[in-house]
Every structure is written in structure tokens, then in C-alpha cells.
Amino acid sequence: MSGNERQRSFGSILAILGVVLCVGFSLNASAHTIRPALVSITFDDDAGFSIEIEANAESLIARIGTEHEDTDDSPNAQIYNQLRELAPSDLKTEFETFAPEYLENLSLAFDGQDAALVLVDIVVPEVGDVELARDSTITLSGRIPDGAQEAIWTYPEIYGSNVLRLQYADSEEVISFFLQTGEVSEPFALEGQVVPRSRMDVAIDYIDIGFRHILPLGLDHILFVLGIFLLSLHLKPIILQVTAFTLAHTITLALSIYGVVSLPASIVEPLIALSIVYVGVENILLKELKPWRIVIVFLFGLLHGLGFAGVLTEIGLPDSEFLTALITFNIGVELGQLAVIGLALLAVGWFRGESWYRQRIVIPGSILISVIGAYWTIERVFF
């Protein structure tokens, strides 16, 4: 076999491997990765408190910890997969049986003493597509001890990271923290209002949240960025497209957060999926970057910004550092996109000068991107 033939064979193998990895990651990661829980604690006027936790109840019941990047790696994977197929009422029953263990591991401590947590309810969505994880809403309640001065929240390491939101019932101020796996919250005072975090703390948290929304959680955004990467043989056009994409989603994200623009997820999410189809198809039909590509990427970036707004709406933005959180979230998203491009360059960038690069890398990869985008479009419209 000649040197060129060996190169082409290697390129084919690499392309096929990329297809397998991309399909496996894109279609299964949502169901098989443990995502951060969203924890909202509200302190009532009558010395009580409530906790709402949005989390994957199936992984909790199956006792699959964060030591497994993929739930299929756990010895309890079969239990997890069976739980995902249960009707809401059946999964609720399973969780109520598991609840004492779950509550034992959680901790909301007042002046160093753990409060007694009571399970109020768990709301489980319908099964839907079993290839996608479903987040249930777990509601807990408890009482604040007389004279308590401060509280500390701990979400156990086995359950992964969490976004913590604090609020008093008589205040619209919401303070958000991103707590890494096993990280304990800072003490927060119970008298008066929740003390806002420093600007630096907010910036670090929201850069982290923005980055994680791309890697590893933003599968649709990852595919869109990969579509941008594949058509361009040079780094400058790629960076220009990503910059246009970032500028666009920053605009609509800000407008959406400020209430100027609003579209329901039922419209935004299918359109985002269609944008993925488009970049893949254009990569197949065109052999080089056209001037209109940056304009198209900008327009699609406007759509993706509305998708990012949904994430920030759930997490919340601190009133005291609203603009800081908004800007640093976008910085995190941009860093995540650049990381995707960096990984793509490491994987296939070495071969962009080869004659077979388009046939063996660009076209197969773009076909796969379009197929996954079409699958998501159908799923989001009809299911």
C-alpha cells in the first residue's frame, strides 16, 4: 500500500470513528450524563422554608454517582434504563420509597445543625422520548430553628453539581451560586436580605455556567459550531463565523432577559435544530465559504440566543450583578465554542490540506450533522 493510500485509509477510519462518536454522544448523552441539579430555596415569613430541586430522579433512585461520566458505565445501568420507561405515577412511587435515603444525604444546616427535611411532593413528566433524560421537580420543606443566624447548603458529591438559587418570600432578589460537585455553599445570613455575592464570584460562576452549557451539555450548539468548522479550511474564517454567532446570540439573549423579545421554546428549539440541518447541507453543497455564510450564521445565532435565554431564566441572574452575570455567561459560552473548535482541530485539523479531506471528513461529518439536526427537528415538533 502506498503512502497516499495509507493516508486515505486512515482518513476513512477517522471519519467513520468520528461518525460513531458523534452519533453516540449526540443521541445518548442527554439521557446518559448526569446534569447539574437546579436547587431553589425560598425562606418564608413564618420561619419556614421550601426547597425545589429539579433533577434526574431515575439516576438518583438507581444510585448512579458522578464517578460515572456515562450512566451506561454504572453496574446499575439496567435499573436506570428501566426507571426511565416508568409512567410518572410509578416513578413517583419508586422515589417515595427512596426518599428517606435521599433526604438523609441532603443538608441545609442552620448555625451548624441540620434541619429536618420533609418530602412534600415530586412531579414527574410523562415518559416521552426515552432517549432524552427527564427532570423531575422534588419539593421539600422544613422549619428554621428559633434564633438561627445563618444557613449552609450541601448537595452531596454523589449527586453531582448544582445551581443554588436563594430567595426570601417577600423579595424579588434571587442570588444564584454554581456549586461544583461536592462543594458546600458559603454561609448566608437569615436576617434581612440575602447578601449579594461579590462581582468576581458572580463572574467566575457564570463563566463556568456558560462554558458548561456548551461543553458538555450543549449538544445542539456543539453540532452547529462543528458545522461552522468543517466548511472552512483556514482558522480566520472560522473565528469570524464564531464571533458573528456569539455577537448575535448575545443580542437576543440580552433582549430576551430584559423582556424585549420572547418566543416559546416550542418554536425556538425546532428552529435551532433546523439551523443545524442547514449548516450541514450547505457544507455538502458548497466547496468553499461564501460571503453570505457569516450573515446566515449571524441570523441563526439570534435563534440560539433565545435558547440560551431559557437556561438563564431557569438559573436566574442576580439583581446586584445582573450585567456582570449576563456578560460573563456569554464569555463562558464563547470559551466553550472555542474549546469545541480546538478539539476539532486536534482531531482532524492535521488533514485539512489533504486532497481527500473534503470527501472523507467534511462530507460524512456534515451528513451526520444534518441527519441529527433533522432527527431533533422532527422530535421537537411532533414529540
State the shape: globular
Helix-strand pattern:
HEEHHHEEEEEEEEHHHHHHH
The number of helical elements comes to 11
List low-pLDDT spans.
5-32
- Average pLDDT taken over every residue: 79
Structural class, by secondary structure, is: alpha+beta
- As a percent range, the share of helical residues equals 55-70%
Cα radius of gyration in angstroms: 23 Å
Question: Describe the biggest sheet?
Answer: 6 strands, mixed
**What is the straight-line distance between the termini?**
50 Å
- Strands, total number: 10
Within the largest sheet, what's the order of strands? 5-6-2-1-8-9
Strand content: 5-15%
Number of structural domains: 2
List keywords for this structure.
single chain; alpha+beta; four-stranded antiparallel sheet; 11 helices; globular
